[in-house]
Design goal:
5-stranded mixed sheet, single chain, Nucleotidyltransferase, domain 5, 14 helices, Arc Repressor Mutant, subunit A
Length: 405
């Protein structure tokens, strides 16, 4: 049966969002407990639940109902987020490769596929993707209804207009990413910067402190950061959180006590995006003979086999990152710092190096335990890719799915 949202019925959608989010956080959970936690009346919770079950967002779990409560009937049937009917598709478009994924409503990766970009830049990166996407979505959906497509990348992204305003390494400027993907797939499309998407994922599915305030630092070929306060990801004009890549830092991956002589595209020396990027790290590894060529997989393999040269380069980068995070934390003073960087989740010892440098450099002398590595491991980019759609769905579930019913 269709579920329609009347114009101006924002309160109903806000109530539906409150119920859905409460079940996400606490489920499986009885309707009566949802009413207590949300402050909504039992009848309001019941109405919202009917809609959310019909939309495929919630499911009743009678097999989890405990006996002996002295009460019977539907209000005591536990509710859970339905992870079987719907899925969200996502694209993380990076420099070396693009990650395509399908996620369930809890942000868990159902299927993931990495597609090499083969050194392409500009529109050449997108053309093969646009041709493959419809078949890829159909092949991997596995009988689920795909309700939207998220697309994230580094650089400056305008989520309202669906544009990538600037992505230097991919040579993108004012790229109409949302329109191109919508035309190719026919799905609703949401685009965003990957650091903001990772921040939203942490708020939805991660550490409880993220909902108070957090900073996310992404260190890859692009260095990006995002900030959230009171559960809202900051979007500054024009559509950027800031540009942490130009934060001045000391040290290089070959010598943590030296000043970088590599010049950033902005014309200055010592920018974080040059000192700590994957590009810089992989090139240094190749230059020192640690790897045969500048390559992520080769450096990971060298680290795993205990190569001292690889270990030294990665530790040096960890120290640079710790210094940058100390500066950032002293300015923002967040409840949580989340680092998304390959080696800190590959081996906790490298996160320890980041934390030690952070504790040494922070003037606020904050507890280094507020600094964590994101916990999704190799799924992190896939989770970020689908999160713009999931964030919209949890913020306004009835409105987000109105076109499907």
């Amino acid at each position: 049966m269709p579920t329609t949202l009347r114009a101006g019925d924002d309160r109903r959608d806000a109530n539906a969002a409150a119920v859905l989010r409460t079940v996400l956080d606490h489920g499986p959970i009885a309707r009566s407990r949802v009413a207590e936690l949300t402050g909504l009346s039992a009848s309001a919770v019941s109405r919202q639940t009917v809609d959310l079950v019909r939309l495929g967002l919630l499911s009743e779990r009678p097999e989890l109902a405990g006996g002996g409560t002295g009460t019977v009937g539907r209000p005591q049937l536990p509710l859970a987020v339905d992870t079987d009917q719907l899925a969200v598709a996502g694209l993380h478009i990076g420099v070396p490769y693009t990650t395509f994924a399908l996620l369930d409503l809890r942000g868990r990766v159902l299927r993931r596929k990495e597609i090499s970009n083969r050194g392409r830049t500009g529109l050449a990166v997108l053309k093969p993707l646009l041709a493959r996407l419809p078949r890829l979505i159909d092949a991997l959906a596995g009988g689920r209804t795909v309700v939207g497509l998220g697309a994230v990348s580094g650089g400056s992204v305008d989520p309202e207009r669906g544009l990538v305003l600037r992505h230097g390494p991919l040579d993108w400027q004012d790229l109409p990413l949302r329109a191109l993907l919508r035309e190719a797939t026919g799905l609703p499309v949401r685009v965003d910067n990957h650091a903001r998407a990772l921040t939203q994922a942490e708020i939805l599915f991660g550490h409880p402190a993220a909902r108070r305030s957090m900073v996310q630092l992404f260190v890859g070929h692009v260095v990006d950061a995002a900030l959230a306060v009171a559960g809202t990801v900051h979007l500054g004009p024009p559509s950027t959180t800031g540009d942490l890549g130009h934060l001045p830092v000391t040290g290089t991956v070959t010598d943590p006590d030296a000043q970088s002589e590599a010049r950033c595209h902005c014309g200055r020396l010592g920018c974080l995006s040059v000192a700590a990027s994957d590009t810089t790290l992989f090139e240094a590894a190749a230059a020192e003979g640690v790897t045969a060529e500048p390559d992520r997989a080769q450096l990971i393999a060298a680290v795993k086999r205990g190569d001292p040269g690889a270990d030294r380069l990665v530790r040096n980068r960890a120290r640079i990152i710790g210094r940058a995070l100390a500066l950032l934390a002293d300015v923002v003073n967040p409840d949580l710092l989340v680092l998304t960087e390959t080696f800190s989740f590959l081996d906790p010892r490298y996160l320890d190096v980041v934390r030690a440098e952070f504790a040494l450099r922070s003037h606020l002398r904050r507890d280094a335990d507020l600094l964590i590595a994101q916990r999704r491991g190799p799924d992190v980019l896939a989770v970020a890719a689908g999160t713009p759609v999931l964030g919209e769905l949890y913020a306004g579930p009835v409105r987000a799915l109105a076109h499907h019913h």
